[in-house]
Amino acid sequence: MTETLTETLAGIVGAGYVTTDPDVLDGRCVDHTGRYRGRATALVRPGTADEVAAVLQACHEAGACVTIQGGRTSLVAGTVPENDDVLLSTERLTEIGVVDTVERRVSVGAGVPLAAVQRAATDAGLVFGVDLAARETATVGGMASTNAGGLRTVRYGNMGEQVLGLDIALPDGSVVHRHSQVRRDNTGYDLASLFVGAEGTLGVITALDLRLYPTPGHRVTAICGFADLDALVDAGRVFRDLDGIAALELIDARASALTAEHLGVAAPVEGTWQLLIELAGEHDLTERLAEAIEGTEICGEPAVGVDTAAQQRLWQVRESVAEVLGLFGPPLKFDVSLPLSAIQRFAEAAGAIVAAHAPAAIPVLFGHIGEGNLHLNVLRCGAEAEPELYAAMMTLIAEHGGNVSSEHGVGSRKRDYVSMSRTDADIAAMRAVKAAFDPAGYLNPAVLFR
């Protein structure tokens, strides 16, 4: 990082938005889990798409690598620099446009936190389709870059289904504005979809047009307990296709025991495994939910919430899991997709792998069972056990027909395992796309490829 580049960046964004302070950079170079750390030489915080583009051009000309940072909630070291990079933060891109209640859409900056989009939609009598536990911190630009899913995927789909248009600053310093006011626009390549899930390797998303939905008039929520994971999976198959399904979440009873002990949030049902189900629609779906539950092999009676307060108490069981995980130090996280038929076998084998490599560790499984998207968190796993345990778990996922990355992205943590889910031809095609947009390979160089 030369003094000349620092001055150039200050001239683009203003001196107050560029820093080389080692203490500031040190805090920006560690990932959300606290497990992975990198190196950077400067932090720059542009305030417009044109400033982002100018920063990229300046760094390109200076031969400096750039790592993009949004809310820094990546769980796969996706925002950790490895090459004494310039950190480009989107945190100042926070404009929220007026909600279009007729077309049900809103334009927002990439640095807007998810919770702010949700509040804007709610204030307009609408709802945004993606929800995450990290809603107060995760930014919509980063969520689009990883094609995040979350708690409502079974109803509304992943982040990609919510994106109607994008502004993207490209590695060559140009800006693409890909927007359309019509509902059907098939003119040329679907460029917006190319950047969704690209993890910032092809360009920097600076703004998004997002789809919104009508707010359901009625909701009903339930938690059911199961003695057997296969029985829960069978129930999940039924519920995911049920008209009005709004959420379908697997909870490991080990997680509920921890939330009860440390947070005072206990699961209100029996069973080794728990399933949170929510239906939503324009009329009361309580009877439909009850009929569906009757056909499942549950333990004891389900807990059902019809009013808002009761629903929030049930949701607290699921959302407290994310909070309790950090009490044991940085957990080792695995985000995977599996065929539903393989989940029981995977859970048993994963427990055995954890016991073999880290006997004192606690494996906790939860996630979005409707899509087979599971989050395995290994608590009390020391750094010395991580390399072999991680490699063994990736192999196990592949052996069970799974995908090594579901909604968290590849980042730098999983780049060595991409070949477990993609063929050599797939990877070569992705590299060709990367080379076409970023021939110098300076943008997010640690992400996706080695």
TrEMBL record:
It comes from the Bacteria. It holds the Pfam family FAD-oxidase_C. This is FAD-binding oxidoreductase. Keywords: Oxidoreductase. Its cofactor is FAD. Residues 36-215 form the FAD-binding PCMH-type domain.
